[in-house]
């Protein structure tokens, strides 16, 4: 799409490199930086003052090697990401303050990062063919284009853009070092390679958020520091071809199958590329009217529940912080009112001192649309219904325009999706914007997360999703393990998704059919109903249980009551009803909560196990969730 339209003879007409590329004011534009709100300025300067005497942490070879020897990435991550966040904070503060207070530390940070043996994270070294699989130590000449190297290059490139004039008054070597390192470590290998899996040039290799995430800083480098017009033009054409592979692989319904917390890297990364091309061509490169580009942006308001809660399946965090500025700008570019409203209602990107990546481009761009964004004084749109027909995800809330009441989401799809969990047929329920029945998400990433032993991790398994387990057999990974005949219907006050999830399980489960319906009824007493109609092969009875995951401590009033109460907020309860004649209930605490799970849910979760009292060959089971308005 992009290359076909702009990447042949038209690329020369777009004027890249003909004029100054200035997506936001540089530090020397004191009027522009002085117009930023005093409160915003005060916040950034207060944050930067913590690091005036900062001691730049050492990156230890032993910590780098630990990924290969024990799977531990945390020891390296802390120092690696902290260096970059501190540098970004100091750069923004220097632009705010404008008097050189932070320049010495900025220079220290630039040279500390430029002198790192490698910018490549250890687990990412295996993504290109030069990688030595027997070697656990980094090499100063082992350059590769992947997430950590491009994020580092992006930070340095925009640091030079903002402060380059000041650097030249000190020494030309600062800018020279940034240019040489980013060319050697990112631009040159990108231009030389067509075999990075994320580029989309390798047949059979599926791309994901890595594609726009990596292409964005490459594009910035081509626009900011590449002086040869032929190299710049060829490089931009290659970026367009690579982005085309990403767009082609994106679900045609615009659903980010990696989830909302990956949207900023996936859809947001694509938008950043398209925005840079639009700005650098003075608006001549304009693809924002394309339906797929609009649909990719429209995903976020469709899956927004309330506050920082979003519909989260697979590795995704239930709490996402896409950054109001980027969401807002995307909405403006595509003319999407719901996206504009969501972006205007959200805070800017989170506390930069706690972010894994410091996207200096995004922070700076956001600062200069902030007054316009806040002037909207918009509330989130709280869309009532959404259906993603390709990825087979349904969302529905009790009432449009408010978080109050019940909210349900359900998925069909398959178990070969990006960042997949084995979760075909799973669902989640929220009440008044609070979580009731949920998808756990994932722990902190480690070596096993991306290994052949991935599905040995407990939280990826179907038994820790809102799903049945039959004969002790779990769902299996792979695209062939999928939902069949998924049908969505919206009639009056009822939203419903129906599907057969039998194929998500292997043959040994012995399931002939498992028809699951997830429904929200708004009329009368609002209720979420999950109805399973199932049959075993050859009529052979099977022992089975049904899992429900919740952050609320369940209250069971009697083994045979058929009722579980979930207190989701002060003075507020939901009721889960089930068939106590056929099912016995057991409550399990989930205490094995690492730091990432705790950030989303707190110190513990619960699994409600509804176990069949007798083996069964054919049956129907229903759970109903209502709110006790007492």
UniProtKB/TrEMBL annotation:
Gene3D superfamilies: 2.70.98.70, Chondroitin AC/alginate lyase. It comes from Paenibacillus glycanilyticus. It is found in: Cell envelope. This is Heparinase. Residues 408-547 form the Heparinase II/III-like C-terminal domain. Its main location: other. SUPFAM superfamilies: Chondroitin AC/alginate lyase. It comes from the Bacteria.
């Amino acid at each position: 799409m992009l290359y076909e339209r702009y990447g042949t003879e038209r690329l020369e007409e777009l004027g890249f490199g003909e004029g100054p590329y200035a997506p936001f004011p540089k530090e020397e534009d004191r009027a522009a930086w002085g117009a930023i709100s005093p409160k915003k300025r005060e916040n950034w300067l207060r944050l930067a003052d913590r690091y005036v005497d900062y001691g730049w942490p050492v990156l230890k070879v032993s910590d780098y090697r630990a990924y290969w020897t024990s799977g531990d990435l945390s020891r390296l991550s802390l120092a690696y990401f902290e260096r970059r966040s501190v540098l970004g904070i100091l750069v923004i503060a220097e632009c705010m303050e404008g008097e050189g207070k932070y320049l010495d530390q900025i220079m220290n940070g630039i040279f500390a990062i430029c002198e790192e043996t490698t910018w490549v994270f250890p687990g990412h070294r295996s993504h290109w063919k030069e990688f030595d699989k027997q070697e656990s130590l980094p090499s100063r000449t082992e350059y590769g284009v992947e997430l950590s190297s491009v994020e580092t290059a992006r930070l340095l490139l925009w640091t030079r853009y903002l402060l380059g004039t000041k650097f030249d008054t000190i020494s030309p070597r600062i800018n020279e070092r940034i240019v040489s390192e980013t060319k050697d470590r990112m631009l040159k290998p990108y231009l030389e390679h067509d075999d990075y899996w994320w580029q989309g040039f390798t047949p059979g290799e599926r791309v994901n958020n890595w594609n726009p995430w990596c292409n964005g800083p490459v594009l910035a480098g081509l626009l900011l520091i590449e002086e040869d017009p032929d190299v710049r033009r060829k490089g931009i054409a290659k970026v367009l071809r690579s982005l085309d592979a990403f767009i082609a692989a994106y679900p045609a319904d615009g659903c980010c199958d990696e989830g909302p917390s990956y949207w900023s890297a996936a859809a947001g990364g694509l938008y950043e590329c398209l925005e840079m091309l639009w700005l650098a061509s003075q608006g001549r490169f304009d693809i924002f009217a394309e339906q797929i580009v609009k649909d990719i942006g429209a995903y976020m308001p469709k899956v927004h529940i309330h506050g920082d809660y979003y519909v989260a399946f697979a590795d995704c965090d239930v709490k996402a912080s896409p950054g109001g500025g980027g969401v807002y700008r995307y909405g403006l570019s595509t003319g999407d009112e719901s996206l504009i409203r969501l972006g205007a209602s959200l805070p800017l990107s989170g506390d930069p001192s706690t972010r894994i990546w410091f996207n200096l481009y995004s922070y700076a761009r956001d600062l200069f649309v902030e007054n316009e964004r806040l002037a909207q004084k918009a509330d989130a749109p709280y869309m009532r219904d959404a259906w993603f027909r390709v990825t087979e995800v349904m969302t529905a809330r009790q009432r449009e325009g408010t978080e109050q009441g019940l909210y349900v989401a359900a998925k069909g799809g398959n178990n070969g999706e990006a960042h997949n969990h084995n979760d075909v047929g799973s669902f989640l329920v929220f009440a008044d914007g609070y979580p009731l029945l949920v998808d756990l998400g994932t722990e902190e990433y480690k070596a096993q997360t991306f290994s052949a032993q991935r599905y040995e991790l407990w939280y990826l398994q179907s038994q820790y999703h809102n799903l049945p387990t039959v004969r002790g057999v779990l769902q299996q990974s792979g695209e062939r393990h999928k939902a069949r005949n998924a049908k969505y219907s919206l009639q009056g006050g009822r939203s419903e998704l129906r599907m057969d999830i039998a194929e998500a399980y292997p043959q040994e489960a012995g399931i002939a059919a498992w028809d699951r319906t997830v429904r929200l009824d708004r009329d009368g007493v609002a209720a979420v109903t999950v109805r399973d109609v199932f049959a075993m092969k050859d009529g052979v009875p099977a022992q089975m249980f049904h899992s429900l995951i919740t952050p609320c401590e369940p209250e069971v009033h009697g083994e045979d009551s058929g009722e579980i109460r979930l207190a989701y907020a002060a003075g507020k309860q939901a009721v889960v009803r089930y068939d106590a004649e056929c099912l016995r209930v057991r409550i399990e605490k989930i205490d094995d909560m690492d730091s990432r799970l705790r950030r989303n849910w707190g110190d513990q979760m619960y699994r409600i196990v509804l176990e069949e009292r007798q083996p069964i060959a054919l049956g129907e089971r229903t759970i109903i969730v209502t709110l006790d308005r007492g």
